[in-house]
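Following up on my earlier thread - several people asked me to post the actual chain instead of describing it. Fair enough. Here it is, all 116 residues.
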Amino acid sequence: AQVAESGGELVQPGGSLRLSCAASGVAFALSNINWYRQAPGKERELVASIAGGGRRTNYVDSVKGRFTISRDNAKNTVYLQMNNLKPEDTAVYYCKAAQIGRPVYWGRGTQVTVSS
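Reply from S.P.:
Thanks for posting it. Predicted structure:
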């Protein structure tokens, strides 16, 4: 099984990015997918999550109204649309696939840098 993030890059404050999390070798439609981020010197924090069916989503307060998580089960991909980015959003963003009773799979991360 493999999980891989993409889409991170340098963007100016107020800009937008869309991150992708592609999974293979997992029962994707049954998996909850979570986006985490870790900034230098800080602990990894849960940013957003989406249930297997895609109807239930959750966000950390600091990104509510700016980030949107969605999934395309036909493509085994989850997206994180990030708008109105702020310097404090700078971090490595990680994707995690989790299914009850199964191993948890992490990607290697993608760097998002918000700076002018």
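The mean pLDDT is 95. That should answer part of your original question.
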